[in-house]
Amino acid sequence: MPLETDDRAAQLRALPRTRTLVVCLALFLEGMSSSAINVQIGAVEGEFAPGPVELQLIAGVFLISYAGLLPLAGQLVDRSNRRTLFHLGVVLFGLGSLACALAPAAAFLVVGRFTQGAGAALSAPAALALITAGLPEGPARNRAVTTYGAMGAVGFSTGLVVPGALVTALGWRSSFLVLVPIVLLVLAATWRIPPSVAHRSGRLDLPGALLLTVALGLALSLVSGVGSLTVGPLGAGAGVLVLLVGVLVRRGGVGGIPRSTFGRPRVLGAGLGLAAVFAGVLSSMFVLSLDLQAGGGMDAYEVGLLILPQPLAFSAASRAGAAAVGRHGPGRTLAVGMLLIATSLVLLATVTRGPSEVRILIAMAAIGIGMALSFPAASIAAIDATPEALRGTTAGLLTTAQNVGGALGLAVVTALDVVPREHGDSATPGLLVAAALIVGGGLAAVVAARTRAPEGAHAC
């Protein structure tokens, strides 16, 4: 009887649907910041004229900070008051956004973007833990997890549309400043949500998180520099990277993510699947946007309008995606979603400049539907395979996988020299590479999900 009473009390503490949506607005902000840099960077370059290193830092430091610090944030969420950590992360994100809007030089913009990433790293796993607290496995929890994934993905897609209009009309600083009122709204609306305190104990792995952040930055720099660096620097960098990864694994996990978490086959498969989706979508949108602007003569706002069907289709199909998981299982749903995205990218690769907007709109809508199937399927598969005490860590792992995948996708298309840089360049090679990233990642996810879990992988 006491156990039933505790379960009932936990369910009563579950957030109402409206509060769940407000909490997940933090994921919307994170998603926007992940993608908006693609339409902001041209105007930033025009004002600050940063060198190549600074320009790369401005574009990638958010993903590196976010991905590298997420494991540590997940550990904090599994050991502390999740409401407090959520608010702290939202405040950090808001301060970073304000710093970017007021940045007097490129270096200050890098610091602001890093602060944004750190805040997102803290708020994302805390948000998932808050909205699933007290919810048993089943439709209610599936809806909460779907909302969580949908907000991030819709924010990612919206970041390719709304900032383009702001940059064109009011300048690039306005596209950072507009995030601050949303931050204040989230703080005001969630200030009195019930606290959720985890009881997991253990030592926080701060050195592991810092090592992971350095390793990620080095790995992405090496990949993107394959075409420009000589054998000596590449070899030295690769040697240092292998050493860092070896140290991380020997410490009992990667950046504080214990092997008991990423050693679960379904969690590992879900992470690889999300990484592949993010790699393909982010790199393809980057390539297509540059192609349409450089070769098609469009401005950022016009490109945003062509991409608009993607977030609209995602929003419209997100509930159907959760229902598909309940009906067909997460594995099949994820596979169908990834296949749909890859097929749509191949369709985009056949689009030629000129009267092809209709095909772009159709492909964007199909990509949105594929994301609506993929994100909830991967998230639900991982959460269902994880005990509640480790959900913050698992959420950190999934979001780390997304950001690493997105950054790696950009690095791969850059290394292969398939990014349109001037009039006459085609987006076709880059779009085909993006589709191949999704197919390859999907196959890796299947293999990982079907691998037998190592001993001790199910320990809490």
Structure description:
- The structure is a single chain.
- This protein is 78% helix and 1% strand.
- It has helices at residues 2-12, 17-48, 52-77, 82-102, 106-132, 139-158, 162-170, 172-177, 179-190, 206-224, 231-250, 259-262, 265-294, 300-307, 309-328, 330-349, 357-384, 391-415, 428-449; strands at 253-254, 257-258.
- Mean pLDDT is 76; it is low at 1-13 and 454-460.
- The radius of gyration is 21 Å and the shape is globular.
- It has one domain: Growth Hormone, Chain: A (Up-down Bundle), CATH 1.20.1250.
- It has 19 helices and 2 strands.
- The protein is mainly alpha-helical.
- The chain has a two-stranded antiparallel sheet with strand order 1-2.
Strand order of the largest sheet: 1-2
Shape: globular
Give me the number of helical elements.
19
> SSE string, helix = H, strand = E?
HHHHHHHHHHHEEHHHHHHHH
Count of the separate structural domains: 1
The CATH homology group name: MFS general substrate transporter like domains
Can you count the beta strands?
A: 2
